[in-house]
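Summary of Year 1 activities. Much of the first year was spent building the evaluation harness for sequence design. The harness presents a backbone, in tokenized form, and records the residue chosen at every position. We chose the following record to illustrate the format because it has been used consistently in internal testing since the harness was completed.
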């Protein structure tokens, strides 16, 4: 099995620290863009996305190009999977073309793990079903460090569709390795009790005010309609109970930061006043996505 990046759960704290320290070196100076490097010149990366993506796919592309690699993106609808080819056959076909790494997003939890056992090429997980989204948690961690100075002992509320969120799982694994206390909050139908047992120190509540009280970080999640048959509650009702609004911010610590992996749904899980406020780190997260993905591609390939 070639070393790729499949999840946060199996990474050691020191490995996370190394990736974050390297990501910091890739952050641009204020007012500048990301520097160009030659580190991965001559390397070819395939970006294989079987699910929709704006931020993740684009930032892997930019990250690869900034390191001098060649990268090509294939999306589900433009691949032969839409002609009935199995995932293994598609990956074997791509593997025969000898790329140096494959970045992959798939709706099946565990798909990248399965393929990394099957192909002698490093696989980077860009989101697998409801399981993990490791580079999202790394860029979230980098954003927290930028704003708060450290990841140690933070109190973090993660609010929304916990049941179907790979972002929540990766963040829980990462934050708990740094002593974080995580409060999970959402409608009862989207807040499985088992999530309280995946790492130490997790609390669960359906009460948004209780979740937010005295937290350092609020992470909002989108309802993953694509992963459930029945639509949960309607937008207005959802917003009333689980939408982040200015009055909530006063309950948290004065220097609280608000995060969201995107895409955001204004008026469902977050109000525009909060999304566009000084407390919001949403666009910082997007920017940090490039620095983190440069660090990850370098680690996997250099
Ligand atoms: N972009 C994130 C993901 O792919 C979050 C979301 O789609 O709601 O998991």
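For this record, the design step produced the sequence shown next.
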């Amino acid at each position: 099995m070639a070393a790729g990046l499949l999840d946060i759960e199996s990474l050691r704290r020191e490995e996370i620290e190394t990736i974050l320290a390297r990501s910091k070196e890739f952050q641009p100076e204020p007012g500048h863009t990301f520097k160009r490097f030659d580190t991965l010149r001559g390397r070819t990366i395939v970006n294989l996305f079987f699910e929709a993506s704006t931020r993740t796919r684009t930032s892997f592309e930019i990250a690869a190009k900034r390191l001098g690699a060649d990268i090509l993106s294939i999306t589900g609808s433009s691949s032969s999977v839409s002609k009935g080819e199995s995932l293994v056959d598609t990956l074997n076909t791509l593997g025969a073309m000898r790329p140096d790494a494959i970045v992959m997003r798939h709706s099946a939890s565990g798909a990248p793990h399965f393929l990394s056992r099957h192909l002698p090429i490093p696989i980077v997980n860009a989101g697998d079903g409801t399981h993990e989204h490791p580079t999202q948690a790394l860029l979230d961690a980098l954003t927290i460090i930028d704003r708060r100075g450290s990841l140690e002992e933070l109190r973090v509320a993660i609010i929304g569709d916990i049941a179907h969120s790979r972002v929540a799982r990766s963040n829980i694994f990462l934050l708990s390795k740094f002593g974080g206390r995580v409060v999970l909050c959402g409608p009862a139908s989207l807040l499985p009790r088992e999530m309280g047992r995946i790492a130490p120190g997790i609390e669960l509540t359906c009460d948004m005010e209780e979740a937010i009280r005295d937290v350092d970080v609020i992470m909002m999640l989108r309802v993953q309609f694509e992963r459930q048959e029945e639509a949960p509650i309607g937008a207005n009702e959802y917003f009333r109970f689980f939408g982040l609004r200015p009055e909530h911010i006063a309950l948290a610590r004065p220097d609280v930061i608000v995060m969201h992996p995107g895409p955001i749904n204004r008026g469902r899980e977050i109000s525009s006043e909060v999304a566009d406020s000084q407390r919001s780190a949403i666009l910082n997260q997007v920017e940090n996505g490039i620095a983190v993905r440069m660090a990850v591609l370098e680690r996997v390939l250099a």
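The mean pLDDT is 95. Quantitative recovery figures across the full test set are reported in Table 2.
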